[in-house]
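Mods, move this if it's the wrong board.
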Amino acid sequence: YIPPQVRKAQVPLDDKKREELGRLKKMVNGLINRLSEPNLSSISGQMEELYMANSRKDMNETLTDILMNACVTAVAMPARLLMEHVLLVSILHHNVGIEVGAHFLEAVVKKFDELCKSDAEGKECENLLALIAHLYNFHVVHSLLIFDILKKLVSTFTEKEIELILFLLKNVGFSLRKDDALALKELITEAQRKANTAEKKLHDQTRVRFMLETMLALRNNDMRKIPGYDPEPVEKLRKLQRTLVHSSGTGKETQLRVSLESLLSADHVGRWWIVGSSWSGAPMINDTNSKTQQKLHIGKVSSKIMELARKQRMNTDIRRSIFCVLMTSEDFLDAFEKLLR
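Not the wrong board. Structure tokens:
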């Protein structure tokens, strides 16, 4: 069986489909270019209509491509602009379906991982990290992913990583403290340990000291110690989000509780966080294990019973075993014992 998504990928795009996608891209691009806080309501409404009129896959891919091109640049993007773009994704995630946020999140995380490994000079990593931080701020993703990213950055602990840790903590530190204070405390302890061991290697000691001070300020819930920290814009947009999301809940129930590892290996192990996502990779469980379990201990069963089992269409080892046990047991206790075995 080949799922429709894979089937489509195998068929080359015809001219009509290409033209349709081009038209869709123009429409989405036009809406994203006009995006700002005052007209967010009308634009999110138009986007929802486009989602109703076109296939989800085409819309998700088009929207993700356009947002990535708009937000991931070599220069640092204005925080306000990033917030508004992510807020649009968040509204669609809550109103249209969780696959919208999931598709965008996966693309952002994979790109971030790729750029972290390469030594890119620009600000693309910061922009991608800001997108992930705001996806968390607007309840698209759970704090689990943010902690995973922070742990990964702390484990590497070079100048670039310290910069990114500071950037992330400044954006979502206090929300993390509210969500999981214990995990944040463990992370701070780990960072202090790393800072002590890496003291000789790093040239810029003031940066490390500044990071540790920021972490202590977070632990003590002291907002004044963090320069340039301003929760006002995020709070304002969260209020706007509450008015635009149709469902009555807080939005926490649609948060994607997915780890960094799961997102990066989605192509190999499937996307379990999206209900009904098609997947045609290698089986997740090793085949050898299941085959050994299949060979159950039946004991010596007469060929007559085996023939009967075949007639009753007991076509797997397990079915045959259960049938033989039921037919050859002396009483219910005997059958129970054998079935347990």
